[in-house]
Amino acid sequence: MKLSEEHRAVVTMFHIQGMPHAEISKILRVSEGTVRSRLFYANRQLQNYLDEFRKNPVS
Amino acid sequence: MNEFDDNEIARLLRLKRYEQPPPGYFENFLHEFHRRQRDEMLRQPLWRICLERAHGFMLRLDARALASYPAAVAAVLVCAAVISLKIYQQPETARVALQSPPALSAPAHPEGEWSLTSPVATQIFRTQPVRSFNGSALTHRAAAAPPRYVLDSVPVSYEPTFRF
After folding, report:
1. Taking phi first (over 0 means left), then psi (-120 to 50 degrees means alpha), and beta for anything else, what does residue B80 get?
2. Fewest 10 Å CB contacts: which of B25, B34, B136, B151?
3. What is the ipTM of this complex?
4. Residue A37 touches chain B, beta carbons under 8 Å
């Protein structure tokens, strides 16, 4: 639950449910650019979390 | 080299498609949902819970539809008050008129006839209107007497004379 609500929704719909950007933008009532932007920053956050996890798996 | 690039993250997240909830999750979903709802409600202060419940109760009652009921109840109460005031504020003459006919009329049971009513009660019932009738007769006598006027209480002869 480290991602924000908006970023988590975009990641869930795109990566897990496999929806295209256009459909996500219709569901969330935002532009496709906003969807891509949220995906980019969400991926960046996830990369950071996974790097930290790889360096220190206990935490 | 960054192991977790976008493709790697997408691949890892795609694995979550195959995740399944634990057994019994959907059976207990409603119960769990209600339990979480109650927990969230109990975190609020008591006065806010009461306020929300009162607000919901008023919305369910539809206050606009109920607005006419207090007005109707108030109108009925006002009418009842006016009628009761008119009944209890009747003039004294009307009460005398209601009580006098049995006193002036002949007794319902003659002397020789057997009756269940006690003689004392009959006597009291007959004497009360007579007293009031005598009183009214006295007032009639006083009214019939000619009025007495006193023009001057001191006679002329008693007027003080001039002394030098």
Report:
1. alpha
2. B151
3. 0.74
4. no
